[in-house]
Amino acid sequence: MLENHPRLKELRYTLYRIFRNPSAIIGVILLLFFICIAVFAPYIAPPKDLDRPYMMPRAGYTITPQPPNEKNIFGTTEGQYDIFYGIIWGTRTAFRIGLFVITTAVIIGVILGTLAGYFGGKVDEIIMRLVDVVFAIPFLVLAMAIVVSFGRGLDIIMIAIASIAWRSYPRVIRSAILSVREQDFVQAAKTMGVSDIRIMWRHIIPNSIYPVMVIAFMEAGSVVLTAAFMSFLGLGAPKGYSDWGQMVALARNYIVGPADDPLKFWYTIIIPGGAIVLFVLAWALIGDALRDAFDPKIRRK
Amino acid sequence: MEKLIELKNLYKHYPILGGILRHQINAVKALDGIDLDIMKGECLGLVGESGCGKTTTGKAIVKLHEATKGEILFHNKNKAGKESVIDVVPLTNRKMKQKGIRGKLQMVFQDPTTSMNPRMLIKNIIAEPINEQVKLSSREMESRIKKLLDTVGLGGQHLLRYPHEFSGGQRQRLAIARAIATNPDFIVLDEPTSALDVSVQAQILNLLKELQDKLGMTYLFVTHHLLVVKYISSRIAVMYLGKIVEVAQTKDLFENPMHPYTLALLSAIPNTNIDKRSKRIVLEGDVPSPLNPPAGCRFHPRCPFAIDRCRTEIPKLEDVGNGQLTACHRKEDVAKLVKDTFGFSMKR
Amino acid sequence: MSTLIEIKDLVTNFYTYEGVVKALNKISLEVKKGSTFGLVGESGCGKSVLVRSIMRIVQSPGVIEGGQVLFHKKKNGKEVVVDLLQQSEEYMRSIRGSDISMIFQEPNAALNPILSIGYQVSESFLFHVAEEMCEKILDELNSPNDHTFFPIKQFLKYTYRVGSSDSKAFVLKLFKKIPFLKKWDKRLKKEALKRSVEIIDKLHVPDPEQTVKSYPHNLSGGMKQRIVIAMALACNPDLLIADEATSNLDVTVQAQILELLNELKKEVISSILLITHDLGVVAETCERVGVMYAGSLCEVGDVNEIFKDPKHPYTKALLRSVPLFSNEGKLESIEGTVPNLVNPPTGCRFHPRCSLVMEQCKQEAPELKEVGPNHTVACFAVN
Questions:
Q1: Which of C74, C69, C78 lies closest to C98, judged by CA?
Q2: Per mean pLDDT, which range of A9-23, A260-274, B326-340, C193-207 is the poorest?
Q3: Domains of chain B (ranges plus CATH)?
Q4: Most C-beta atoms within 10 A of its C-beta, which of A199, C109, C194, C369?
């Protein structure tokens, strides 16, 4: 019985469409890999200080980074912070940033976009001009202004990014809604006397959410990149926090080593940088595959 | 027969904004003064070509379009048996629900693929209109839905299915089940068989006839397909460019059409009866745009019998005797004119 | 009347997620020169797939898997029989538009909204009859009335001489890249435009000179369909295939188009293969009819025969279920639904819905056998 439940059949068909794409498989494997690391972080890299598990342990106090050895598997960065520990717990940080920002952004963006698209007229104009204004705000300036007002910290940065990140979604969902709201089934719901809110929730949003999902997935990775950038500038997480961007910031002075051995400190940059790249790649590949899977023109031939 | 719905002087103009200040410079005159009576229990066919306003009329009655001017009078009988006449034009959906008439004016759409939410199970699709009126327990709802499906010939179907799992004809039955779920008095059927296979059309038309007899509903059957409307309607109204040009009993319309446009429409129908083929009146030109309809009689540029009066004066829809209404200045002479100009007599 | 195109045992399958759709099940039919053949059937029966297979434009995941399409082509005065399924894509491209043309249901989809009408109709001429036009222009250049400036005239004579033997010559393409020389084809385009105006005029489009300068959105549906027909008839094809060409049009406009096609049959086109689900249209325009159901041909015959005395149970049921002028009684619907072609019924594909079904029908698929003059039926109960 459960086998034939229609929702499961739809799910199976969607999964088939997603996994026809080899890049999707790579993306999913990468993401699962990261999820495992994040979930099992306390076991893979046991925290030395249980109150503050996110602070990277230090193997000493010398400034110069040390290459990988038995004690520190990936080596240490400036100030002897253990890179391995930072990568593992940084995965958790990355997920925290990505999920918080994207969830907030999607909720705000979808609500505003749906109101604009469904009601049209003045409501549409006002909301879209608001979105235009937000688009015009230079993100870096805003972030710095917020840091100056509220102090630095990862949470502050997440709120700053979320306050801008929602701006793409209203336009995307509004354009999908403009075509969905003229469809017969929405008209039929109106003749039945269904209230506007119910129409939006039950009919409009489920049928226009696909482009939002695709963009959300692709942006989840780049949000982490933005946060890393902020940390690199010194606006984000405090020194020694397990954040990949923070780790790249610590390696600022060691990107190019001494003249005779320029790649001496490669591990300080490549390893955290590589983690960022793979993380963003995983989300982007899945988003790409989702877009192909959900394209309604190809979907049902 | 009693009247169920009266359309009085109904207008629907879509304004076109232009100029620097975006003021109205022109309007698409979809409906340009419609007077029509729909009798209780009848099936009134509304025919015409694209752009004539027939779909707009149907949608205006169920309030999917807001009429610009005019009245739509609905003769309502509430639960207590009290009768009243309500003008639907100024009402909102919420007011209609309060008065208990929102569920009485329903519509069946042309394309069964798009008229139901593809992401909803059919159980929820049919439950939706019922939920707007009463709160039923899930078991009561299920039994009511099953009964409805039985009525439309889909008995024994699993409720947990999506619309796309059904064939075109079955989907249209689902749409009909949804429309009758609230026991409506009146249903607008907007080309309900045009998107279906030819062999399924007969099934749906027969079902609609059966339901009308069983449930005592009134239909407005909007279509451009004259032979379909001949099969199912008792009375037919012909529209051209936002105005009604002729109204007659089905038999009278086909045997004795009075308006030149009706005549042209009838003769344009491809005829499968090889022997009884008669000469055709093929009209010149295309249907003009409702942006700038011709002055006077809307049909005069294409009418083979137009005279000066037709170019300036709009003809009124008048009774020619047996309940047949036509809007033509030369209505007394039409039969003779046809014989003289085209060489055949109109009576088929 | 001799044969123009003959289809033998055509099989086409579609490889989809749900399985293999056996769209065409060994179709065999014949279209004679100078006649109109109507192909009727419901949606999903395979009529569009059939004509697309003839033109070899079946969309993937469809594959033509077997059979022959024998086209009797006139080449340099002689008649050659060519199997279209065996030819190269380049050969097919030269056939499409000049020997066999096709028009579709939606004129909006066939016309490019950003190109003028004149450009689009000329395209057909420029692709297929460029050599002939070049020769004509060459003659004009050589005539004593021509007063072009001497060096330009020599240059033009050279280009058009090359063009009249091979319009796609490398030299001409090279000239297109060089600033002043690339204007060599101005006369060619003018000639193509002139021919476009002629053919549009033949189709009773009012004011053809103005029409060629306008764009598709300036025209109404009926006019657009006429332009599409003009594009199809530009090169005097031997066969015109009309795939539901009038289904989207208003009834009065449809009457105009059908009358037009009837008129053109006498002068411009040789044969028409008309696909429709509307039996009335078939009765008005066709001489012969083929009835298809679920990928197989049920009955083929002259129009009068089929409508007056149908033999196949499906044809009979179809005529009874459609509202016709002559039909006064109740419409009788056909029991059951159109089968899923991934798992079509065994034997005769109509047997689950047939009132005359016998044991043999479930096991074997019936072949088309003659039951009267030019009248064939595929049914065991009839034969």
A1: C74
A2: A9-23
A3: 3-233 (3.40.50.300), 240-342 (no CATH)
A4: A199
Q: What pLDDT shows up at residue B348?
A: 46
- What is the ipTM metric for this complex? 0.84
**Can you give the pLDDT at residue A301?**
40
Q: Are B179 and B106 in contact (CB under 8 A)?
A: yes
Tokens 């602070």, located at residue? A55
Extents of the domains making up chain A: 21-299
CA distance C119 to C111: 11
Strands B325-326 and B243-249: antiparallel
The answer to whether the CB of B73 falls within 8 A of the CB of B61 is no
Count of A-B CB contacts under 8 Å: 67
CA gap A60, B3 in Å, rounded: 95
Is pLDDT above 60 for C135?
A: yes
- B185, pLDDT greater than 50: yes
Any C CB within 8 A of B195 CB: no
Q: Is the pLDDT of residue A1 over 50?
A: no
Name the residue among B36, B82, B68 with its Cα closest to residue B188: B36
Query: How many inter-chain contacts (B to C, CB under 8 Å) are there?
Result: 120
Please state, as a whole number, how many other Cβ atoms lie within 10 Å of the Cβ of residue C283: 21
Of residues C271, C267, C273, the one with CA closest to residue C243: C273
Over pLDDT 90: what percentage of chain A? Answer: 25
pLDDT over 50 at C71, yes or no: yes
Q: B144: which DSSP letter?
A: H
What is residue A231's predicted lDDT score, i.e. its pLDDT? 83
List the alpha helices (DSSP H) in B17-53.
Answer: none
The answer to whether residue C61 neighbours chain A at the CB level (below 8 Å) is: yes
Predicted pLDDT at C325: 67
Q: Which of A178-192, B186-200, C316-330 has the weakest average pLDDT? A: C316-330
- A271 Cβ partners below 8 Å, 6+ apart? A74, A75, A83, A87
Mean pLDDT of the region A227-248: 83
Question: What domains sit in chain C, N to C, each tagged with a CATH number?
Answer: 3-114+215-286 (3.40.50.300), 118-194 (no CATH), 296-377 (no CATH)
Distance from CA of C161 to the nearest CA of A (A): 48
Yes or no, beta carbons of A194 and B105 under 8 Å apart: no
What local confidence, expressed as pLDDT, does residue A3 receive? Answer: 46
Of B178, B174, B170, B87, give the one whose Cα is nearest residue B128. B178
**Structure-model confidence comparison of residues A105 and A72, the more confident one:** A105
Partner-chain residue, chosen from A10, A187, A193, that has the shortest CB–CB distance to B132: A193
Query: Strand pairing partners for B326?
Result: B246, B318
The answer to whether A118 and A196 have CB atoms below 8 angstroms apart is: yes
Q: Which of A276, A239, A270, A241 is nearest to A255 (CA)?
A: A270
Q: Which helix (H) or strand (E) holds B312?
A: helix B308-312
Token pair belonging to A103: 């969830």
**Superfamily of domain A21-299 in the CATH hierarchy:** MetI-like (1.10.3720.10)
Contact A184 B115 (CB under 8 A): yes
Whether residues A16 and C17 touch (CB distance < 8 A) is answered with yes
**pLDDT, tens only, B319-333:** 887 888 888 888 888
Strands B23-39 and B3-18 turn out to be antiparallel
Tell me the Cα Rg of chain B.
22
Measuring CA to CA, which residue among B201, B249, B45, B277 is closest to residue C325?
B277
3-state helix, strand, coil in chain B (%, to 5): 35, 25, 40
Of residues C10, C11, C4, the one with CA closest to residue C81: C4
Q: Average pLDDT over chain B, rounded to whole?
A: 86
In 3-state terms chain A splits into helix, strand, coil percentages (rounded to 5) of 70, 0, 25
